Amino acid sequence: MPTKIEKDAVTGQETTGHEWDGVKELNNPLPKWWLWTFYATIVFGVAWMVIYPSLPGWKGSSGWVAREAVVADVAAAQAANAPMMARLREATPAQIAADPELRAFALAGGRVAFANNCAACHGAGGQGAVGGFPALVDDDWLWGGSLDAIEATIRHGIRTAEDADARNSAMPRFGLDGMLTNNQIGDVAEFVLWMTGRATHAAETERGRVIYAEQCAACHGATGEGNRELGVPRLSDQVWLYGSTKQDVMAMVRNPRMGVMPAWQGRLDPAVINMLTVYVHALGGGE
Ligand code: HEC
Ligand code: HEC
User: Fold this and answer.
1) Above pLDDT 90, what percent of the chain?
2) Distance 279 CA to ligand 2 centre (A)
3) Which pLDDT tens digit goes with each residue over 144-161?
4) Residue 81 covered by a domain
5) For ligand 1, what atom is nearest to the CA of residue 276?
6) What pLDDT is recorded for position 263?
7) What is the pTM of this model?
8) Alpha carbon nearest to ligand 2 atom 13, residue
């Protein structure tokens, strides 16, 4: 490292003393336009810090805070919607569905409320999810697809202790409680497959038919049509909560899984429950 300042012979400029393979770096001054832009950004930054809330505890000389601005915007939007929300709160879902203006508002609001509260279980578009979360876009209803039935389901929930009026029912634990042997469970599962044309063992199916009539028909119906009073699913279709294979059916008969849905009354504004009712009803399968 040379210590004394060297001058470049060609340009007369000082060098930095750095040298690569005989090429020396000149110590040119920074361009003026660059330097002044640099100073300007520092001035701008300091001014910004003074005017806006940029440091912990410093609200800024302007008094403008993004968080407060959002709160004010939300309050203004709520105030603007208040008359409409009051109408939605007082009307029944049937009245909302019949009024084009209320219905349009309910569908838009219902979509947002559904995304916030329901999509985690029922899917973003209400398409349902494997493992007991029913699709809400089809016309296959466990508890009913009328406006009244949907409203009752949303308001009170299903098999939840939160609400005394929750929809309730339970399938017996045929395997776990020793009501049926493993062979009998296999037979009745074969008969359940038979109902959708998928049975492969004739003898099992016939034994299963007898067991089904004795143990299952009271809830699931003589021909597997289900029962909405008890939220009992139809077994004679292609829609399954917990899976369609023989193993899935046998698992269900051994130790049934019972779907639980929270009650939304008390959690959501009654106007929002009405909007959700109209929205779910309009998803495709409303009756
Ligand atoms: C924690 C999960 C969960 C959340 C959140 C949830 N649900 Fe459900 N929902 C379920 C389950 C599970 C069932 C089926 C219960 C059963 O097996 O009977 C169900 C059933 C339903 C049904 C009845 C469907 C039928 O076929 O009769 C409706 C309607 C419904 N939910 C609407 C909603 C709405 C609207 C929301 C949002 C406000 C919501 N759910 C939020 C889990 C959930
Ligand atoms: C006391 C009424 C009751 C009886 C008896 C009953 N079930 Fe069920 N079963 C239900 C209910 C309620 C459900 C729905 C559970 C849920 O929604 O989470 C169900 C669900 C099922 C399912 C799941 C369907 C799906 O979509 O995934 C199968 C399979 C089933 N039952 C088979 C049977 C068989 C086979 C028998 C007879 C051995 C039987 N059940 C007896 C009430 C009953």
Assistant:
1) 83
2) 28
3) 999 999 999 999 999 999
4) yes
5) 35
6) 98
7) 0.82
8) 232
